Amino acid sequence: xxxxxxxxxxxxxxxxxxxxxxxxxxEPNPMVGCLLVAPSGRTVGxxxxxxxxxxHAEIVALHxxxxxxxxxxxYVTLEPCNHLGKTGPCTEQLxxxxxxxxxxxxxxxxxxxxxxxxxxxxxxxxxxxIDDLPEVTSLIDPFAHRVTTGLPWVIAKWAQTLDGCIATRxxxxxxxSNEASRKCVHRERGRVxxxxxxxxxVMTDDPMLTARHVRTRRIAQRxxxxxxxxxxxxxQLVQTAVExxxxxxxxxxxxxxxxPKQSKLIEAGVTLIGMASDGSTLELTPxxxxxxxxxxATNVLxxxxxxxxxxxxxxxxxxxxxxxxxxxxxxDEEAMPSIKxxxxxxxxxxxxxxxxxxxxxxxxxxxxxRVDS
Length: 373
Fold this sequence. Notes:
Elements: H1 2-19, E1 33-37, E2 43-48, H2 57-65, E3 73-76, H3 90-97, E4 101-104, H4 116-122, E5 126-129, H5 134-137, H6 141-149, E6 153-160, E7 165-167, H7 179-189, E8 194-198, H8 199-205, E9 221-225, H9 236-239, E10 246-251, H10 260-267, E11 270-275, H11 284-295, E12 299-302, H12 306-314, E13 320-325, E14 336-337, E15 353-361, E16 364-371
Parallel strand pairs: 3-4, 4-5, 6-12, 6-13, 8-9, 8-12, 9-10, 10-11
Antiparallel strand pairs: 1-2, 1-3, 7-14, 13-16, 15-16
Helix pairs in contact: 3-4
């Protein structure tokens, strides 16, 4: 039994590695991987959910296995769906293929698609749920967060010096991290649904916020929180809005169809999104909710300064942090910290995070954290 349990866990981890290949294509569906293993121990089929609307991981694996699927065990990172959807229920396909056992890495949090485990058991298939593998369960976290809260999975990204600065006292930040680190960021830009920033970063850095010199799997929506529509018409975001979707989130009271600047922004391809506001600032939760409603966004990458980052952390809206630490020291008390706006008199009041991945990018250190809920 111990050997079987260890085999099951190893196979689920293999299915998880497959699932990650779908990042940037599967969303807003979850990333899912599947392995089919014959009684002899030979893998006869494999698949992952490549693109939303296309076949699910189980179906891809069954196509590869053909008749060899009969009598096999299916290792699936997520409970097979039990509803029609766009591609039909995977449970019925597994039953018809003659699968005798299914090992599931996590139950489906979506009530519309759940129930697969029960359906398979009703059909006489043995089902085991092994949901204590973080490498497997974490795959579904962004999807689960969206369907249960109505909010996207927020990834805060920044590059900092060893002493925690993201810019000098004059605002210079290009470049703290090295080219290898920046390439990682470009790759992630080509996989997320939305890249979110604030007008302060736009005015200081004039960023493009596009994925360049990497393989892109989707073109992210570029969203700028700009309450008073301060963006300059000659900024790179505005100048490239026809090619890369660009949206400005402003106070609803700012919208004026007769305003010449707004007309030029719209002519340039920029979309203006008005949000209700009691003052000069905008509430962040409604903005994030609107990203789900408008773009079906699952993953939002935040590339902004310490002000917006600080607010997002303060309001517990950040799910993940991606930090690039460069071997540089500023030692300047007026340099820009990674986040600001917090008063934390006690260490117990600090925001806790758990390290989930680390690697070197040249002399930089890339760290990925999950934020404690």
